[in-house]
Here is the input.
Amino acid sequence: MKPKDFFNQHPVFTSQEYARFLEQEKHTGKRTQEALLSYHVKAGNLIRVRRGLFAVVPPGAPPESYMIDPYLIAAKLADDAVIGYHSALAFYGKSYSVTHQFCVLTDSRPVDVPFREDVFRLILYPKPLREKKQELFGVKTVLHQGCQLRVAGFERTLVDMLDRPELSGGWEEAWRSLESVEYFDLGKVIEYALLLGKVTTIAFIGFYLEQHQNELRVSDTYLKQLENHRPKQPHYIDKQQKPSGKFNSRWNLIIPTEIIEQPWKE
Here is the structure.
């Protein structure tokens, strides 16, 4: 394989991937690798996204303004990277608003990686999933631009977004985006919510499904499963909005007025 063939097959790649290619082609040595990468960056054939991560520039395209697919970058930021939260819905074309924040789940160190106008947020898998070795529950492998990406499915994303709305642009963005999804496998939603094991989130999923019972065809059986795990004492959904919350007795939740009234629908 020639370097050109490698670049054609790897629109975004890590230095480790390039090193393995060079070893196969008998071009060994770290200095050789660094020299070749530096040459291609200077020649405008590659863009250095961050240390150890490169994007290929097609022949004739200006490297300064060439648009790199952000999902390809996200998938290469960690070996175990999963595109999740609002970014998963954006990948599927279901987000309400365009965003320049991309959430990447990983077991690696959490950090923000800026690149041009985008920010890639590396976020630890939830602790209960790590403890149960269930980090990839509800994750799909998708072929995108010739590359395999791991992306959270709709069911996991529903739970994750309502569990951490700050990673999804806030309540309005989360609500509007989720409402663009026409179908959820409700059995998987409940299975994942129980796996996550947060009683406040479990009850809030129940509240969300109750609010969308007709559109999503939610049976009372599903709601009862979630209701059985609601908090024993009233819990705030958003502790920062305590004064404006309203109590919901079925789910034992104090829910932000913004969610109850949904002023964005006016």
Observations:
- The chain has 13 helices and twelve strands.
- The chain has three domains: 3-56, 70-181, 182-266.
